[in-house]
Specification:
About 40% of the residues are buried. The protein is globular and about 75 Å long. It has a seven-stranded parallel beta sheet with strand order 5-4-3-2-1-7-6, sandwiched between helices. Strands 8-9-10-15-12 form a five-stranded antiparallel beta sheet, covered by helices on one side. The chain is of the alpha/beta class. The chain has two domains: about 25-285, Alpha-Beta Barrel (TIM Barrel), CATH 3.20.20.80; about 375-455, Immunoglobulin-like. α5 (about 150-160) links the parallel β2 and β3. The N and C termini lie far apart (about 75 Å). The longest helix is centred in the N-terminal third of the chain and has 22 residues, at about 1-25. α8 (about 320-335) crosses α9. It is about 25% helix and about 20% strand.
Length: about 450
Amino acid sequence: MKKTFLSLLLILLGGVAFAQHDQLPETDPAVLQRVDEWQDLKFGFMMHWGIYAQWGVVESWNLCNEPWINRGGAPYDEYKRNYTNLNRTFNPSHFAPEEMAAAAKRAGMKYLVFTTKHHDGFCMYRTNETDYSVTGPDCPYSRTAQPDITKAMVDAFRGQGMWIGLYFSKPDWHCDNYWAHEWATPDRNVNYDIAEHPDRWEEYKRFTHKQIYELTHNYGDIDILWLDGGWVRPEWSINDETRPWLGCYQRVQDVDMPKLAAIARSNNPDLIIVDRSVGGRYENYRTPEKEVPDTLLPYPWETCMTMGDSWSYVPNDNYKSSQQLIHMLCDVVAKGGNLLLNVGPDAEGRLPQEAVERMQEIGNWLDCNGCAIYGTRPLFPYSKGGVRYTQSKDGSHRYAICLIGDACKRASFELPFELKKVTCITPGCTARVKSSAGKTTLTLSNSTLMRNAVVVEF
């Protein structure tokens, strides 16, 4: 009896220690080295794409029965049934992954994050765990020569020398062990009491782990596993910000991240894992959504941002200008982050022409000025006035990125350094400086109009 009690106590104490360990940041040198290399990339391409593109709605969120959702007055049950059946008509006949990868390469993007499965549970890859996928028999695209869209994306982007990141939703609203058919779905969360149905939740965890195995073992060496659905999280990670996400029943939905991570890294030990918003060991970098922080952050991070207003394809979306996007990239990089820029293809698999044009214009700027972006680190004061500051990793090169507002032939900026000489990196522009009392007035000029941003080295 004493031996049994002691064994149980050791197991419980070991579990507590393990949980506390998971709350701490990652310490594995191999993973930290990969995160450092990822920080050199600076600019990534994100793609939200799924059956929802056929309706031009914001991903799968309209399935969620929460007060902020607007379904245009459609009855919920009817809407959900019709949405779920979109797998029967998804057939993107113009999907050309090589063209997408080439456009991202021209834009100067260095890594991909592709939505393999959003919250609706429709898988954009070949899976043995459900027929609700692009390769399932009900989906017309399954009858094409290469129906595994994730494989096509991975092959095309890897062929352009880009890192591969796979987005995966931890909650799955199509899985009967998450949204069980016996009960209503009052919000985004699991709709049954896990304490009363532990076997059902164990089945859901097994389902999730098997899908993670597929994604991290069937597509070669994956660089980033980007996990979404932050309301699925361990109890230790719940705080005042995240508690409201758990909805009306406040159910803790722990999918056993230590085991999931071990599966994901079983043949890829330096895989970067991003368990978004959870913190701790399995959020190797943070991802402020549609937000650029005000200043430097003390950890690796990435702003994930839409090029338009929506994450997924919406007709007549309002795209940010090339100038806005270039300025945003410079601002993010100066504060130590990466920019992950999202574009959603339409139902036929085409990137919107406006987005492709923006990508080309960003790439044109980076072709000339990328030395101030790629492989750099922040330089105090990082961001001040109309100037963003970066430096090479070894500190041997320092850059001032001067953000141009209206197109002009001449512009002046104040730098907080006393300098005697600067070198203009941007072709065609000339730069001269006048220093006094620790400050420098930098004057830029060009015979033609200066646009977007001008880079000088000092």
